[in-house]
Amino acid sequence: MDAFHRITSGPANRRRSIPVDVGGVRVGGDAPIVVQSMTNTDTADVAATIAQVAALAEAGSELVRITVDRDEAAAAVPKIRDGLAARGIHVPLVGDFHYIGHKLLADHPACAEALAKYRINPGNVGFKAKRDTQFAAIIDTAIRYDKPVRIGVNWGSLDQELLTHLMDENSRAAVPLTAMGVLREAMVVSGIASADRAVELGLPASRILISAKVSDVQELIAVYRDLARRCDYALHLGLTEAGMGSKGIVASSAALGILLQEGIGDTIRISLTPEPGGDRTLEVKVAQELLQTMGFRAFLPVVSACPGCGRTTSTVFQELAKEIQAFIGEELPKWKADYPGVETMKVAVMGCIVNGPGESKHADIGISLPGTGEQPSAPVFIDGEKRMTLRGANIAGEFKTIVAEYVATRYGQHPTAAR
Predict the structure, then answer these.
(1) Is residue 62 part of an annotated ligand binding site?
(2) Function, please (predicted)?
């Protein structure tokens, strides 16, 4: 397997699910693991939702889910799609339906047509006698408009009748499961049985994805291992209610990282709680960084920098690392258009002689700055070889020029070099 395939398709042991086309984005099979996100605007507020979807798409979200909870929201969906298209943004929109999805889709055919995918929750798609008919109504709409469906199970809104039934069965078992084991089994059964029912109703398996979200790391790993073993449907991964800040990032990365390494997962979302007025695009950036850190995809050049220690009491290398990161971010849109493969580039900005030269050699291009008491010189390594030494007050400017020249030389004349 070549390097480019390896960084875009996941581990060699990746589970081969049934691929699904979501508005032109291929999910599952051997396709790259897809990053998605969700808005937190009132969907009926067309301008605000367009602005947030645009920000998420520009940050790199390849699918964006929006809440469709009432008539006003459903009526807004085609306006949102058209408003995004007017801005040159064609990210597929996923409608999130609960309780009355069947009615909203029937009453608003323009909404049903505008969405690229429907997400339905088998725990609240309908209750008692209405559950089957309302589920079937949504599936019929999906078939009519040729839309894929995500069966989204969540332990916070699990089908209580199914759970009670499995609890009763478990109580009569010779070796009963724990209560959590029964809950996990209910989630797996709910997802697979709903997907199988959709197939019986006429929706192809290639139009179905499943998710089974919990907020506990170990339980999420366990439930997705069960799902992966027992079905071939494409799987959407996400730790629900992950939390705020570093807690949510660490918990999501721990859970999803293990599953992805085991070859499980076709599309992911990092469900972070933003600070009030915070940046919603953070969840996209974290998802991208997780996939790139694990070597499954490349979204932007990586800048490695040492953490600093007593040998690096100066802040020069920290300032340079920050400046180079900002420089790459500014140049990246143009670079990606002109230099295919530049997103795979690795840059090292190191702080002293201990690990600096070695780390710089491992990068595509690296610089090793002098530590405390070292000679005021900074060797530059390109493709593993020392090429020059920078000195003086303009090291940052000179190194940025060298990076820009490297990009043009490697990825301009040889655009397939990184593949």
Answers:
(1) no
(2) Converts 2C-methyl-D-erythritol 2,4-cyclodiphosphate (ME-2,4cPP) into 1-hydroxy-2-methyl-2-(E)-butenyl 4-diphosphate.
